[in-house]
Amino acid sequence: MLSKVKTTTLKGIDGVEVLVEVDIGNGLPSFTIVGLPTESVEESKERVRAAIKNAGFEFPIRKITVNLAPADVKKDGTYFDLPIAVGILSIIGVVKDQDKMNDFYFLGELSLDGSIRKIVGALPMVSSLKKGSKVIAPYDLMSEISIVEDVDIYFVKHLKEVVEFINGDRSIEPVRTDLTKILESEFLEEEDFSDIKGQYQAKRAVEIAVAGGHNIVMIGSPGSGKTLIARRIPSIFPPLTKEESLEITKIYSVSNLLGSGVVNKRPFRSPHSSATLPSIIGGGNPVKPGEVSLSHNGVLFLDELGEFRRDVLESLRQPMEDGFVVITRAKERVMFPSNFMLVAAMNPCPCGWFGDKEHPCTCSISEIKRYRNRVSGPIWDRFDIQIEVPRLLPHELVHDSKSESSKSIRDRVIKARIIQQERYKDTKIKNNASLTPRSIKAFIKLGHEEKVFLENASTRLGLTGRGFDKILKVARTIADIEGSELVRLPHIAEALQYRFDLSLNT
Ligand SMILES: Nc1ncnc2c1ncn2[C@@H]1O[C@H](COP(=O)(O)OP(=O)(O)OP(=O)(O)O)[C@@H](O)[C@H]1O
Ligand SMILES: [Mg+2]
User: Which fold has domain 2-177?
Assistant: First the structure.
């Protein structure tokens, strides 16, 4: 006799439907699962066998064969415990209503005592199901997956409950949570820009960066507040939309990093400078997202930029340009989103004090050059905004009164972003930072005075073509914050301040 049970498994951050076929026949008693890697097969068989017995049912001493179709999706053993158990129980007549059973997708790992445990990556799996699908899932996944719209999810704690429910001996209502409500509920942002004294230029630069989607690097001596500022950047982003929250939650779901349900804050990730390439880009077996994806829709902060390995920094260029990473393995090709804002910090020199108002620097010019050369030109060019963050003197730290809150900065950011959305609505351009050299010509028109000013500045500062474009993009954002349709001279003049020459030639 054959029974077929529907379930789903994971591919990257998408779900793939899998049909679990169970056959029980006459012959020498055995229990075989086809299509799973050997190590996980044995464990899954043990769990299924023990769970069925400990739930109070009889495990058939016959020839049991389980096949997982399609054969070519990569499968991890823990995903199929519940569907395999349900398949076996339906053939031996414990699960009586086959038609009702066929209505559901079954999700969950079994404990030896028959309780149902949550699995990693459930949100992407359930989100990929067709509208109107019905799912039986582990109770512990409620806060994670009940936000999926158009799918009815029935949460269960034990194999026994599943049997009773299918047989009509127990009623369970589907649970759905409104994601919009979760996102609307005010959460207290612990880190606010009002904590930061002085540093007006840095705060202004950060506001421009977030408004236009520009990457930013801060150079300053130890204790100048670079980390302090970086950590507060997510607090001036617009609130997460439903789609953004879902995208991030899926990534955290497959990474097994979900705390209590949905991600409702923008990510802030700060990997250590010793981070490896796979931990940044993604990799491993099974393939897991890296930091570029864990910071999707949020901030990736590289503290001590010069300490990162060159290949790691170079590898950021593709995900930054495309907004996603593709990880290719012998048998699979997985795509993860990676649309993050890059924020970096570094000291001006090895000892850290070059340019400080009080503290003498002990480095030689060649040492400083070598230190700065660790960051390649092409990487440096990725930062539209480069600023110095000077250390405040002790009396400035004591006296300066409370400054502007994140909320009021955020209001300006939101306005500037709406202006950009409107301007680029018929194009693929997301924001000013993503303007290509060609689209710059189309969207940023300068008056005569502005052109002359920029050309002069360009000659004086020895700007390259790319440097020139960066000034224009940042100037466009400054104009947008001001609500000015045209990019004017003061906007360009301000944009010119946000560049830092690593080479020590100026
Ligand atoms: N502008 C400021 N307003 C309030 N506190 C400040 C300011 N600047 C520095 N501080 C204080 O100094 C501490 C050190 O700042 P932070 O760690 O951000 O420095 P940093 O620039 O990241 O230094 P490093 O180069 O050593 O990483 C902060 O925790 C904070 O208490
Ligand atoms: Mg720091």
Answer: Ribosomal Protein S5; domain 2 (3.30.230)
